[in-house]
């Protein structure tokens, strides 16, 4: 009996292990890179409107978990949830007043559709829902809130081994606009609002199961 078990184990060990099909199944990973948040402040007073745009860049960092499904030999459909943060604070000023704006965490739930340029390389587009947190400080007080929006982008991912892949991705995100009555009161104008959008270029590593 022991001889049979030992012989069976040797036979199984001799069978070559089949590599997992690239871009098919679950994965978890990390990402980091450049992110630029742009806010446009609009102030209206006595029928006159002034605008100021702030572009502030920082280091974006975070992680993701997702699942890819091979729809055909050359097509991949995937879903992903990512959580990211960003360093840095920007200041919006039009000469009348100013506000400091900082970016908090962002949660994104997206789908992607990709085409295999070769068995190890995937070119894809991505789009979906994003929610981010902003803090606005006008010197009289700070107000924080979450904003819903969208994100869309394009990227390229390549297998580095049987279980590890690397990617490079560009994404644009929009988070609408928000009225700022406290800011308007604080700086003495009729109305104030701010529009939020974002550009990001990130690199990532994924471990595939």
Strand content range: over 45%
Helix vs. strand class: mainly beta
Shape descriptor reads elongated
Order of helices and strands: HEEEEEEEEHE
What is the average per-residue confidence, as pLDDT, rounded to a whole number?
A: 86
Order of neighbouring strands in the sheet with most strands = 1-2-3-5-6-7-8-9
Largest sheet: 8 strands, antiparallel, barrel
Distance between the termini: 35 Å
Integer-rounded radius of gyration: 24 Å
Helix count, DSSP H or I runs of 4 or more residues: 2
Quaternary state of this entry equals: single chain
Number of strands: 9
Low-confidence runs of at least 5 consecutive residues: 1-19
Which helices and strands appear, and what pairs or packs with what?
Layout: H1 2-14, E1 25-45, E2 48-72, E3 75-86, E4 89-93, E5 98-118, E6 121-137, E7 142-159, E8 164-179, H2 181-187, E9 191-208
Antiparallel strand pairs: 1-2, 1-9, 2-3, 3-5, 4-5, 5-6, 6-7, 7-8, 8-9
Question: Can you describe this structure?
Answer:
The chain is mainly beta and 209 residues long. Helix content is 10%, strand content 73%. It has helices spanning 2-14, 181-187, and strands spanning 25-45, 48-72, 75-86, 89-93, 98-118, 121-137, 142-159, 164-179, 191-208. Strands 1-2-3-5-6-7-8-9 form an eight-stranded antiparallel β-barrel. It is elongated, with a radius of gyration of 24 Å. The two termini are 35 Å apart. Mean pLDDT is 86; it is low at 1-19.
């Amino acid at each position: 009996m022991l001889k049979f078990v030992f012989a069976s184990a040797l036979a199984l060990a001799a069978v070559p292990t089949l590599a997992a099909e690239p871009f098919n199944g679950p994965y978890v990973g990390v990402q980091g890179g450049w992110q630029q948040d742009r806010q446009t402040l609009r102030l209206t007073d006595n029928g006159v409107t002034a605008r100021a745009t702030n572009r502030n860049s920082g280091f974006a960092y975070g992680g993701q978990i997702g699942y890819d499904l091979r729809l055909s030999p050359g097509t991949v459909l995937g879903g992903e949830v990512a959580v990211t943060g960003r360093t840095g604070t920007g200041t919006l000023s039009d000469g009348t007043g100013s506000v400091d704006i900082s970016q908090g965490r962002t949660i994104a739930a997206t789908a992607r559709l990709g085409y295999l340029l070769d068995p190890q390389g995937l070119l894809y587009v991505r789009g979906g829902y994003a929610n981010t947190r902003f803090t606005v400080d006008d010197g009289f007080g700070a107000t924080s809130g979450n904003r819903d929006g969208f994100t869309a982008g394009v990227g390229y991912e390549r297998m580095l081994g049987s279980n590890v892949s690397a990617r490079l991705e560009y994404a644009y995100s929009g988070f609408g606009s928000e009225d700022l009555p406290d800011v308007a009161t604080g700086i003495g104008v009729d109305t104030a609002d701010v529009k939020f959008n974002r550009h990001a270029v990130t690199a990532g590593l994924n471990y595939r199961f």
